[in-house]
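Hypothesis: this fold can be encoded by more than one sequence.
Test: take the structure tokens below, design a sequence, compare later.
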């Protein structure tokens, strides 16, 4: 797995190659990872990325003579799906997603689906939480899991306005159990570098979420009255440019605590 830990063009596993979109930001880290799956005459492309023609044409160049059987979306956020329609036109392929609003063609994606392209098997896992429509893709041949924004290569993901923390915690538990049972060797995230310790990473994510929930409980007990006050107390060590995202996560955590 040459270049396994680097979020750069060409890194990945035997069956998955990364093309890094030039949309780096505090929220997208180094940029969106577009994944090309397969080494045969036909491939799958996961998350074409933002509406950036230069990036999309670089993916086409990487493909060479290979045919794109389908474009898959881990979820519908624009930094992953914004370029899907243009890319579909460039390569004449359907777009498959859980959310019908992001599909081009008759076929969607759902938990339990199994796709095969030139002998490469891709299994779909429903992992709502970051967003309601989040999916992960398991590559048995590489023991690698494409995680979209459910797991990031650095830091932790935000619970977006269309997500749900209860769902997210259940998805983390599912992925942790799957990674252990399948002896996963790598997580291929939607942003940031590849992670070589799937079980350890997922355990860290689960522990982090539990810690944040307790910190929010403590902030409320200390007198915090609203989301901005909680963010100021709990996320004091986080760059202020990320506080708007933290507010989304805090709101999701407050909603979750109300259900307990």
């Amino acid at each position: 797995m040459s270049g396994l830990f680097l979020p750069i063009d060409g890194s990945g596993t035997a069956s998955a190659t990364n093309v890094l979109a030039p949309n780096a930001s505090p929220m997208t880290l180094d940029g969106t990872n577009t994944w090309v799956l397969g080494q045969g005459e036909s491939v799958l492309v996961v998350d074409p990325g933002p509406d950036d023609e230069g990036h999309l044409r670089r993916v086409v160049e990487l493909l060479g003579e290979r045919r794109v059987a389908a474009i898959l979306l881990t979820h519908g956020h624009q930094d992953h799906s914004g370029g899907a329609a243009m890319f579909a036109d460039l390569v004449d392929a359907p777009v498959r997603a859980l959310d019908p609003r992001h599909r081009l063609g008759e076929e969607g994606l759902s938990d339990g689906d199994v796709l095969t392209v030139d002998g490469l098997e891709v299994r779909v896992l429903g992992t709502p939480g970051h967003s309601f429509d989040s999916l992960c893709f398991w590559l048995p041949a590489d023991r690698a899991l494409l995680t979209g924004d459910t797991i990031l290569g650095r830091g932790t993901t935000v619970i977006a306005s269309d997500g749900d923390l209860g769902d997210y915690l259940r998805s983390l538990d599912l992925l942790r159990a799957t990674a252990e049972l399948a002896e996963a060797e790598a997580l291929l995230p939607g942003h940031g570098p590849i992670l070589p310790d799937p079980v350890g990473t997922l355990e860290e994510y689960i522990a982090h979420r539990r810690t944040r929930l307790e910190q929010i409980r403590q902030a409320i007990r200390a007198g915090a009255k609203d989301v901005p006050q909680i963010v100021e107390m709990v996320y004091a060590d986080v760059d202020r440019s990320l506080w708007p995202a933290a507010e989304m996560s805090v709101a999701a955590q407050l909603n979750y605590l109300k259900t307990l």
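Residues 16-197 form a domain with the Metallo-beta-lactamase; Chain A fold (CATH 3.60.15.10). The chain is about 35% helix and 20% strand.
Hypothesis status: open.
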